[in-house]
């Protein structure tokens, strides 16, 4: 049974807190039907739009589901013009805390990376995953709304570290060499936080030299501006939050992606969403109630 989460932020802005902007709201899924709608949205985007390889079960049900779903919280973007509940779901993010991972038998990220350094961090940690937004809603305001919801969740549960698998499109590391090398040279996590791709799945990220190396000895250098521009918007969003990456990438042939482990230490975050909601939480005015 999946529990209801209508009181996901008691003590900040009262039970039933959501973040709203116009007809859009961000909140946790409150019913199995809303979670099912999130899984249907994930299927449409991952399998129909992005051409991931569906299992027989996924193709039959037209749902992206796995064993982690029943243990997670599901953050939703709901457009009330389309419906107040499941009918209005236009975006989702899957959130898994340490205690939920114990019930699920581990974090999803552990299927690709050794995250022992992250698990050694004392206090609450949070895995972010299965992020997707309907194509008609992929706008800056929608993404800001999602991150406001995550910020409130981080405050509510006193999260110290966030992490997850973030994907680059395609499975050819040579084609992705600028992006992978840029992340390795400019955003590699320190050793005490450095998750590492599992040995049997490890793909080298250090493929091009950084720009500040002696050009006489460099075979090829990163064009940092082009490499940053080529990164998927989600990864660029993590970097704006102070995001770091683990060592080694992983090819996911089912999803037709190359994955990196993203790590965000929340007490280093300077992004306006976290600053705004931390200040609001202290003053007792975080979020909007509906």
Task: Report on this structure.
With 290 residues, the protein is α+β, with helices and mostly antiparallel strands. It has a single domain, classed as Gcn5-related N-acetyltransferase (GNAT) (Aminopeptidase), CATH 3.40.630. It is 31% helix and 22% strand. It contains 9 helices and 12 strands. Strands 1, 2, 3, 4, 6, 7, 9, 10, 11 and 12 form a 10-stranded mixed β-sheet that branches. A two-stranded antiparallel sheet has the order 5-8. β1 and β2 (24-28) form a beta hairpin. α5 crosses α9 (272-283). The longest helix has 18 residues, at 32-49. It is globular. Mean pLDDT is 85; it is low at 1-15, 213-218 and 280-290.
Number of separate structural domains:
1
| CATH-defined fold name | Aminopeptidase
Distance between the termini: 26 Å
Instruction: Briefly note the structural class of the backbone.
Output: alpha+beta
User: Which stretches of 5+ consecutive residues score pLDDT under 50?
Assistant: 1-15, 213-218, 280-290
Number of beta strands: 12
| Portion of residues within helices | 25-40%
Q: Which sheet architecture does the biggest sheet show?
A: 10 strands, mixed
Q: Encode the helix/strand succession as letters.
A: EEHHEEHEHEHEHEHHEEEHE
Number of helices: 9
Question: Per DSSP, what share of the residues sits in E-state strands of 2 or more residues?
Answer: 15-25%
Q: What's the CATH first level?
A: Alpha Beta
What characteristic shape results from the CA principal axes?
A: globular
| Mean pLDDT figure | 85
In CATH, what is the homologous superfamily? Gcn5-related N-acetyltransferase (GNAT)
Name of the CATH architecture: 3-Layer(aba) Sandwich
Task: Report Rg.
Answer: 19 Å
């Amino acid at each position: 049974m999946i529990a209801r989460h209508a009181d996901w932020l008691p003590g900040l802005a009262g039970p039933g807190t959501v973040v709203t902007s116009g007809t859009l709201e961000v909140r946790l899924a409150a019913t199995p039907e809303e979670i099912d709608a999130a899984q249907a949205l994930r299927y449409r985007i991952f399998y129909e739009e992005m051409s991931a390889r569906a299992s027989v079960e996924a193709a039959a049900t037209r749902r992206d589901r796995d064993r982690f779903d029943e243990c997670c919280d599901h953050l939703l973007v709901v457009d009330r013009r389309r419906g107040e509940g499941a009918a209005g779901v236009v975006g989702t993010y899957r959130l898994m805390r340490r205690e939920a991972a114990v019930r699920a038998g581990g974090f999803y990220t552990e299927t690709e990376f050794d995250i022992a350094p992250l698990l050694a961090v004392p206090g609450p940690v949070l895995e972010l995953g299965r992020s997707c937004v309907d194509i008609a809603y992929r706008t800056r305001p929608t993404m800001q709304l999602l991150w406001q919801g995550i910020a409130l969740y981080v405050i509510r549960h006193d999260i110290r570290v966030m992490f997850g698998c973030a994907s680059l499109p395609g499975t050819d590391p040579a084609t992705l060499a600028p992006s992978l090398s840029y992340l390795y040279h400019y955003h590699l996590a320190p050793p005490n936080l450095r998750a590492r791709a599992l040995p049997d799945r490890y793909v080298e990220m250090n493929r091009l030299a950084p720009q500040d190396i002696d050009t006489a000895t460099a075979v090829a250098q990163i064009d940092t501006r082009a490499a940053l521009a080529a990164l998927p918007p989600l990864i660029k969003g993590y970097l704006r939050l102070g995001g770091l990456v683990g060592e080694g990438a992983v090819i996911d042939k089912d999803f037709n992606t190359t994955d990196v482990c993203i790590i965000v230490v929340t007490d280093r975050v300077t992004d306006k969403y976290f600053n705004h909601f931390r200040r609001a939480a202290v003053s007792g005015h975080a979020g909007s109630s509906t």
